[in-house]
Design goal:
Blueprint: H1 3-17, H2 24-37, H3 46-60, H4 65-75, H5 78-94, H6 101-109, H7 117-124, H8 128-144, H9 171-189, H10 193-220, E1 229-235, H11 241-253, E2 258-262, E3 267-273, H12 274-306, H13 309-342, H14 346-364, H15 378-390
Antiparallel strand pairs: 1-3, 2-3
């Protein structure tokens, strides 16, 4: 079998793997031919070339390195995600040009390790057939991924960066965010509920006031509000991706950040001012951890019914609704305090921020539509609401802080 024939076989196997519902057994004839030809897994680099050649289409279609690795982890396997990381890292090492900050940060976060298909296989210590099957599934994944909104210019556009690339934050922004992360880390590590609530409340208050002060200052200096709008992706893992996304939506709604969900690949896009997006990411991470632990407690106490999918979905949807109520109350209190300092100057500033975010969403997602709800278990709904009442949101109003 020549190199060209191997390439054609890989492409044919990738097309088959891209078909919805294809089973591993259906790939076995192609896998067997590849093993007979090369039991060293891509010793001639044909698979590496096929995978690398597919990346520019994904970049032009709005995908970023972390997005593709996330999609492989969901649709292929953890091993498949490591294969994608190896191929992406190899392409990045050979690419010319200066990557935007967000892109470079994603590349830097890739695991240090193999940079070729063969080296990946050797590191995984699996049979050649299993490795070739993963290669075909990743080729199929690359073929089947839908287009996404272009949040960061792809490599072809790095010479002319333009909105909506995130502008780097000021030194003051970085210091504030560092303080907030430190406060949340202390809140999650303490064994004392009151201390955790006080630390998280201080973190939320610090960020909320910083966002308002920054907005007022920008208005006074005549800087355009739209210049601070950022679009960023948040990755959600199975199970219950859409129910987890409801928690993201709740936190976003309470903090002036719009959330757009792509459920097929478990991606939520956050659109808002950079400081607000930062806060939403920090709160979502904490709240999803708290929700998972509270759900595990409810499942242990509730028996078989509490382990069902409708119960778990109901729990998370109810948790999200109650979280939004509590966060909105905290936001309104912070706004009232700021209004006492800024008076009539504050209302138009906040209105302009909201309008700027709306304009960004309309530009990025001109065909948005709302999704219908899912069937949930009433017991799960009520259990989730009770857990949300207990969650530590930083307002100091929770009855207790769940382990964090």
């Amino acid at each position: 079998m020549t190199a060209d024939e191997v390439r054609m076989l890989l492409l044919a196997g990738g097309r088959l793997a891209a078909e919805p519902g294809v089973q591993a057994a259906e790939l076995d004839p192609v896998v067997a031919r590849l093993v007979r030809r090369d039991d060293g897994v891509d010793s001639d680099g044909q698979a590496q070339q096929v995978l690398t050649e597919a990346l520019p289409r994904l970049w032009e279609g709005g995908w970023q390195p972390a997005d593709v690795v996330h999609a492989a982890r969901r649709r292929v396997s953890q091993r498949g995600a490591r294969l994608v990381a190896a191929v992406v890292a190899a392409e990045a090492a050979a690419a010319a040009g200066a990557a935007p900050e967000a892109w470079a940060a994603q590349l830097a976060a890739l695991p240090t390790g193999p940079r070729s298909v063969t080296a990946w296989w050797q590191g995984e210590r699996v049979q050649p057939a299993a490795a070739w099957r993963d290669v075909l599934r990743v080729i199929g994944l690359f073929r089947s991924l839908p287009r996404l909104e272009q949040l960061v210019p792809p490599p072809s556009g790095w010479s002319a960066l333009s909105w909506p690339v995130e502008a780097p934050g000021s030194e003051a922004d970085g210091k504030v965010l560092h303080r907030i992360r430190s406060l949340l880390a202390k809140a999650e590590s303490t064994e004392f509920t009151e201390e955790a609530e006080a630390l998280t409340a201080k973190a939320q208050s610090l960020m909320a006031r910083h966002a308002i002060d920054t907005a007022v200052l920008a208005q006074r200096e005549g800087r355009a509000s739209s210049g601070g709008v950022a679009a960023r992706r948040l990755h959600l893992d199975d199970p219950h991706t859409e129910a987890k996304a409801a928690v993201v939506q709740a936190v976003g709604n309470a903090n002036g950040v719009r959330v757009v969900l792509l459920p097929s690949v478990g991606i939520a896009t956050l659109v808002g001012f950079r400081d607000d997006v930062d806060l939403v990411e920090l709160l979502v991470t904490s709240l999803l951890l708290q929700a998972a632990r509270a759900l595990a407690e409810a499942a242990r106490a509730g028996g078989a019914r509490a382990r069902s999918t409708p119960f778990r979905r109901g729990f998370l949807y109810s948790y999200a609704q109650r979280v939004e109520e509590r966060l909105t109350q905290a936001r309104d209190a912070a706004t009232a305090e700021a209004r006492a300092d800024y008076g009539a100057e504050l209302a138009p500033v906040l209105a302009e921020r909201s309008a700027a975010v709306d304009r960004a969403v309309e530009e990025l997602f001109p065909s948005l539509r709302r999704r219908g709800g899912s069937t949930v278990d009433p017991a799960g709904w009520h259990a989730g609401r009770r857990a949300a009442d207990d969650a530590d949101l930083g307002s100091g109003s929770g009855r207790r802080a769940l382990p964090g």
